[in-house]
Amino acid sequence: MPKVFSIDNVQLNDYLEQHVQGFKGPITLDKFTGGQSNPTYKVTATSGVYVLRRQPPGKLLKSAHAVDREYRVLNALKDTDVPVANVYHLCEDTSVMGSMFYLMEYCDGTVYWSASLAEIDTNEQRSTMYDAMNKVLVSLHSVDVDAVGLSDYGKAGNYFERQLGRWTSQYRASELQNIPAMNTLITWLEVNLPKDDGRVCLVHGDFRLDNMMFAKNSPVIIALLDWELSTLGHPFADLAYQCMQLRMPAGMGSIDGLKDIDRASLGIPTEEEYVAKYCQRMGIERIENWVFYLAFSFFRLAAIAQGVAKRAAEGNASNEHANKVGSFVEPLAKMALKVIETENK
Fold first, then answer.
1. 86-93: average pLDDT
2. Peptide bond before 26: cis, by omega within 30 degrees of 0?
3. Is 324 exposed, middle or buried (CB count within 10 Å of its CB: 0-12, 13-18, 19+)?
4. Confidence category of residue 92, pLDDT binned at 50, 70, 90
5. What is the pTM (predicted TM-score) of this model?
C-alpha cells in the first residue's frame, strides 16, 4: 500500500507567519495536478496566494528533488532577463511538514500542455510563442553566473561526461528490470562522448513548453518553472532536450510531442529553424555532435522516468499516475537508437 503523509496546516501556518514577512493565515492547501517530481501546492492565506514546493516525503535518491537548489537559482535570477517567480523562504527543517520546502510567488498565468498549442487561435501567435521560448533559452544561457552568485552551482569538467555518469548511476539504482535498449544506448553514449568544448552556462535541465507560464491570452512568458534539474552545464543540453520533446509522439508523458504533425500548417518552426534561430541569437555558426545531444536527452528522460517508476513501486511518487511512467523507459531508449541510426546515415 502507498504510504500516506499528512500535513499539519496549523503547524505550517504558524511557521510561515514566523518566517515570511507579511504572511498571515489561516491557510488552505490545494495540490496542483500534473508533474512527477516535487509535490507543489497552492497556498491560500489571508495575506494572499502563494505556491509551496516540497521534496517528496520518504527515502529519496541521492541529489534528487533538491528544492534548496531550486530556491537558490530562482533567488539568483530575480534581477536578470530570465522570467522567474519571486521566492520568499526556504525551510530546511523537515519537522515542519515532513520534508524540505520553499514558498514562492503565485503567478497567475497559463501553462500549455500540448506542443501543438491547439488552444491558440492563430499561427502567428503560435509562432510568436515558440520564438518567445527561444529568446528565454538564450537569455538563460547568457546569464553571467559569476555576477549572480552561481559560479559554484555546478562542478567543473566535461558536463556530458558527468551527466552520463550521474544518470547511468541513478538509472541502475532505479532499475526494476533489464532493458536491452537502454544498455545499448548507454554503451553508444559512452563510446561517442564528445570532447569538452569549454562551453559552460546555467542550464535549466527540463526546458520545455509545459514548464513555461505565459501571461493570460498573451505570448509573453512570465515565469520559467521547475528548476530542480538546473546546474552549470552545457547550453546544447537544454536545446536538444526541447527539440527531443518535439520529436516525441502524442501520448508519452505529460506533454504531447509533434512527431508526424505538419508544423508548418500550425505556424510552429521546424527543428532546423528553431536551432538556427538559437544559434543566430547566441552568435554561433552551427552545432557539432547534434546526434549525441539528442540521444543523450532521450536517455536522460528515460532515466528520470525509471526513477519515477521506482518511487511509485515504493509508494513515494508525487503523482498518482507515476506508476505508468515506467512503461515509457524502453520506448524512449528505442527512439534514441532510432535517432542515432537515422541521423548517422
1. 96
2. yes
3. middle
4. very high
5. 0.87
Q: Please report which confidence band the pLDDT of residue 114 belongs to, taking 50, 70 and 90 as the band edges.
A: confident
Within 8 A by CB and 6+ apart from 127, the residues are: 267, 268, 269
Q: State residue 2's pLDDT score.
A: 39
**For residues 277 and 287, is the Cβ–Cβ distance under 8 A?**
no
Quick one: which of 218, 223, 76, 40 has its CA closest to 136? 223
Q: 272 exposed, middle or buried (CB, 10 Å; 0-12, 13-18, 19+)?
A: exposed
Give pLDDT, residue 34: 64
Q: Which residue has the cell 518567445?
A: 132
3-state secondary structure the chain: CCCCCCCCHHHHHHHHHHHCCCCCCCEEEEECCCCCCCCEEEEEECCEEEEEEECCCCCCCCCCCCHHHHHHHHHHCCCCCCCCCCEEEEECCCCCCCCCEEEEECCCCECCCECCCCCCCCHHHHHHHHHHHHHHHHHHHCCCCCCCCCCCCCCCCCHHHHHHHHHHHHHHHHCCCCCHHHHHHHHHHHHCCCCCCCCCEEECCCCCHHHEEECCCCCCEEEECCCCCCEEECHHHHHHHHHHHHHCCCCCCCCECCCCCCCHHHCCCCHHHHHHHHHHHHCCCCCCCHHHHHHHHHHHHHHHHHHHHHHHHHCCCCCCCHHHHHHHHHHHHHHHHHHHHHHCC
